[in-house]
Amino acid sequence: MNAKSFAEKNLVDAPIDRRSFLLCALASGAVLGAGGLAAPAAAVPLASGAERQSDAQFTSEARFYEKLPNRKIRCKLCPRECIVGEKERGYCGVRENRGGVYYTLVHSRVCAVHIDPIEKKPLFHYLPGTTALSIATAGCNVNCKFCQNWDISQSRPEQIHAEYIPPHQAVSVALQYNCPTIAYTYSEPVVFAEYLMDTADAGHAKSVRSIVVSNGYMQHESLIEAYSKMDAVKIDLKAFTESYYTKVITGQLKPVLESLVTLCKMGKWTEIVYLVVPTLNDDDAEFRGLAQWVKTNLGPDVPLHFTQFHPEYLLNNLPITPVPTLERAKAIADAEGLHYVYIGNVPGHRAQNTYCPHCRKMLVERVGFTASQMLIRKDSTCPFCRYKIPGIWHL
Amino acid sequence: MGAGAVLCAEPEPATPSTKSTVVVARDPILRGTGTVVDPLRLGALLDRTMQALFGGGHPAEASPENAIASWHRIAGPGDTVSLKVNTLGGRGIATNVDLVAAVCMRLQQVGVKPADIVVWDRDSEEMERAGFRIIIGGDRVQCYGTDRVGYESELCAWGSVGSCLSKILTRSSSVLINLPVLKDHDGAGVTIALKNMYGAIHNPNKYHPNGCDPYVADLNMLPAIRSRMRLVICDATTAMYEGGPGFKPEHSWRPNSLLASQDAVALDAIGLQMIEHKRAEMGLKTLEAEQRAPHYIATAADGEHRLGHCNTSRIALVEV
């Protein structure tokens, strides 16, 4: 989108048009794996004020922080609790202390927007066969060494192209493209919690649902306040050891486990993804401990996806996860009594399908990210044995 | 040059007999009777600093000719030289514009074309707020932030650090001169030469945990930085002993000094001493007692990094 049309769009406050949407999707090509940059070395002159993205447009006071002496603040969004001095930013890179007031710099600052199958999130027990308008801003509160989207998650907002898409426009686009759901995903939605909350409210007013794909690394209060507005949640549980979280994620396991328990208590439909990284978190004992913990603390019906790792970002020295490793993880979790254990990122694998834990018949068949067959009844039961299949299966 | 060569393109391993030279040059009447630094005296102080660092006569006999001879050790015709300033703190605690101008003049006098010199930091607006005029194109010295050219799309990684580097560094710089300021930092303890390179990467916010240790050291190990770094001149005309990195006039003082070395670790070690000395004078606890000692300086000197010396027994401090 050129600068003129960008300004015009904002002035008339019109829904984002198809061309703008496509350009925004192209600009976020990194998410699609098309992130090569043409790299002119020459400096460019300062654009006129009208042509530059207005920082003020995306800036609003953050909701989760407390003020400290000497114009410092303590962020209360995630367990990191960054103490941020004036003119500094928190670890996420998208929240800044200006004169003792903490601001989010990414409200409505969308750097990636796509229409994805819900299975791509992955959410397997939530409206199968539907699509989600999937949006992201820059920033993340951890630094996973295998991040697929590091060029947006590990960047500051001003370093990547973004479009101004306020909540009501996001909802309009979702309706325009027949997406029943808006997904907050790709980077880490925790860091754009204010935008997520406002968009979820705007969506619910128009019967558009909201889901979030998150690392769950949040403070208890912010989790409750922000994710209570979600219709479903997918949590990336990166491993089941603190040492992995310290070394590979730059975070902590314990708060993530606490978030999972809280989400279940809140009654949120929750699914868990565990990315199996060869040699780092693929130990049988770890799989077993994870499965036991899920069963004990969340129950056997919470779907658990073991997904295949591909070398990315700072973990380029490891191989793709062997499929037998994923099958071993699933076998262990099955044996521990979990009802819905899936294998992800392996197209065509039978463990991508949903089976009835009672009669063992296939209920949802998936090919890639497409649900090719969905047999679960309107009352969420198995058509063969009437066993209740947990999830949100129908609009 | 001695052990200062540890920051050159092909560093020699430090040995017990080598020392890194750090010059601390002072001019008590740098501001005359006023509050503003006198550009002429600052230029003379720079000459005295360079002559003391590279030899070439008694500092008391500093002359432009001797100073220019020193600059021949840093750059020459055909080089593209980038000057990494520090402007985050605004006009109150940024690299002095007149100091940068004096460096640019000396570089031109040793054969570097004006357009082959780039004064840079992370952000052009921050540079303007600190008093720099943005200049892009033409035959003049260039001056702009990385926001005008962006960062490389490829990651550079060393140890705990994986970052995209400023294209100014990678594409407009065969020689890097680091021009930091001397100040306290609430998270890192101090920010002087080593930490100034946070302004060369796209994701500095990721490297503030644990007092920036080992991130600062790891960042300076990136070949694109290490191979270009030739000289550090720290602007300590004004400095901060508390409350950084933003400018807090109530916590600043005026050492009226320049620090210079080819060993950024040694320079940071001496700078840290100056800040701790001032903190003690002001009745403040040490940074160690405040649990924010800059351990990254020692990490930069350890056997894994060998970026320079932090032990004062390995530093030749020259005060002029």
- Radius of gyration of chain B, in Å, reads 18 Å
In DSSP terms (H or I, runs of 4 or more residues), the helix count of chain A works out at 12
Pair of chains with the largest interface and how many residues each contributes = A-B, 36 and 34 residues
Please give the largest β-sheet of chain B.
11 strands, mixed
The amount of helix of chain B comes to: 25-40%
Query: What is the count of β-strands of chain A?
Result: 19
Question: In terms of structural class, how would the helical and strand content of chain A be classed?
Answer: alpha/beta
Explain what the structure shows.
The complex is a heterodimer of chains A (395) and B (320). In chain A, α7 (193-205) packs parallel to α8 (220-227), α8 (220-227) runs parallel beside α10 (254-266) and α11 packs across α12. Chain A has helices at residues 3-12, 18-27, 29-32, 55-58, 150-153, 167-176, 193-205, 220-227, 242-249, 254-266, 284-297, 323-335; strands at 60-61, 65-67, 73-75, 83-84, 95-98, 101-104, 109-110, 112-117, 131-136, 163-164, 181-184, 209-214, 232-236, 269-276, 304-308, 341-344, 354-355, 362-367, 370-374. In chain A, 50% of the residues are buried. Chain A starts with a helix and ends in a 21-residue tail after the last strand. Mean pLDDT of chain A is 89; it is low at 1-15, 26-41 and 45-52. The longest helix of chain A is centred in the last third of the chain and has 14 residues, at 284-297. Chain A contains 12 helices and 19 strands. Chain A has 395 residues and is α/β, with parallel strands linked by helices. Chain B has 9 helices and 13 strands. Chain B has 320 residues and is of the alpha/beta class. Chain B has one domain (2-319): LarA, N-terminal domain (Rossmann fold, 3-Layer(aba) Sandwich). In chain B, β8 and β9 form a beta hairpin. The chains are: A alpha/beta (395), B alpha/beta (320). The A-B interface holds A 35-37, 39-46, 70-72, 83, 85-93, 143, 145, 150-151, 154-156, 158-159, 250, 313-314 and B 88-89, 124, 134, 136-137, 142, 144, 147-153, 155, 157, 162, 167, 171-172, 186-187, 202-203, 205-206, 208-209, 243-246, 248.
